[in-house]
Amino acid sequence: MPTPAEIASRENGKLGGRPLSEATLATQKMRDKVVLEVEKNFMKLMMPQIKKALEGDYIAYRDLMDRAGVKPLEETKVAVQINIANILAKHEGNKI
């Protein structure tokens, strides 16, 4: 349990300190305006990224999950196997 002196110190600490500058106050106001605008248009801003993720863009999916604070429970591994012979055959076939 805090002592009376600790309680007083906490309360006085809330009142103390250097006053905020005009630049800091202006920055805080601008930040508040930006937050309100983002909140109003959140879905408009996020829909392109959501569409990319739904189309299979793994980077967009991972970005959305990171922003939502959802961390994977297990590591995702992506394996790609490229058959060069098939690619060359298709490429050679298009040169006719």
What series of H and E elements makes up the topology?
HHHHH
Strand content: under 5%
Radius of gyration: 27 Å
Reported for the largest beta sheet, the result is: none
Distance between the termini: 86 Å
Individual helix count: 5
Share of residues in helices: 55-70%
- Report the mean per-residue pLDDT as an integer: 80
Summed up, the domain count is 1
- Count all strands and give the number: 0
Shape: elongated
Question: Structural class, please?
Answer: mainly alpha
- Indicate the low-confidence ranges by residue numbers: none
What do you see in this structure?
This protein has one domain. Helix 3 packs across helix 4 (58-68). The chain has five helices and no strands. With 96 residues, it is mostly helical.
